Amino acid sequence: MTVSISGPGEPITLDIAAPIASAQDLLPVRVPTTRRYLMCPPTYFTVEYAINPWMDPTRPTSTTLAVEQWTALRETYERLGHQVEVIEPVPGLPDMVFSANSGTVIDGRVLGSRFRAAQRSAEADHFRRWFLGAGYKSVVMPTAVNEAEGDFTWTGSLLLAGTGFRTDPHAHGEAQEVLGVPVVSLQLVDPRFYHLDVALFMLDDQSPTPLVAYYPEAFSPGSQQVLRRLFPDAVIANDADAVCLGLNAVSDGKHVVMPLEATNLAEQVARRGFEPVFVDISELRKSGGGPKCCTMELRG
């Protein structure tokens, strides 16, 4: 069978070799849920320092192209029926575009961020003030280093929490107390995948059995065992998927917005009944970011 995938330019068709032999082989019916996102335009985007292996200040960057790619991402969400809120960018904060790093929102409770890198520390207060201005009543700023949805992934029932390069493990306990949800810690071991959201993402957080995709080699052996126990039916990404930041994707339960280079991962999620939607994030990837990095979900 073939599956057509939308994206920039001409539609892409993937050939799924396995035939549908019986009713048991039919693709599951995936139902999207409307989401609300907070994004920040990359008006001042550049790479002027290096705080992860993707960043090289000597490599040319184009703010204009970054804005074009970000705009296409925002328009993709809106075309899929989602609501996008926008925070104003601030001069001198080129990574503010990566809004996922500045807050975790569950049931209307907000846990802000505390960045490890001094270059990004000022971002946290701009987002704190946005939340207060937007009417959020419970906004708590962390005491431990906490890079928010960069290292926190909500499954619908528990919070997966990464550590190893950015977020302090003490932030995991703080998140549990502030957000009132159970937390499972995961150890990251590959510096290329310095945040949880470049190594794992939720495909479906609404079903009784959540479904994730992840790259095992990004995690310690013990964390790999935890993921296998929690998600025995997970989609397993390969190295090619991981190094194009294919796992820095955003799913609404049906549509999976992902980097256009992640074709193997796209084939796998299509086989599970999801619809991949490709976007070009080549310029934003120069800072180590992709669709999810640019997208904070506002839950409740």
UniProtKB/TrEMBL annotation:
- Originating species: Lentzea pudingi
Record protein name field:
Amidinotransferase
Q: Which classification does the entry list for the species?
A: Bacteria, Bacillati, Actinomycetota, Actinomycetes, Pseudonocardiales
Q: Which NCBIfam families match?
A: DiMArgaseDdahMtb
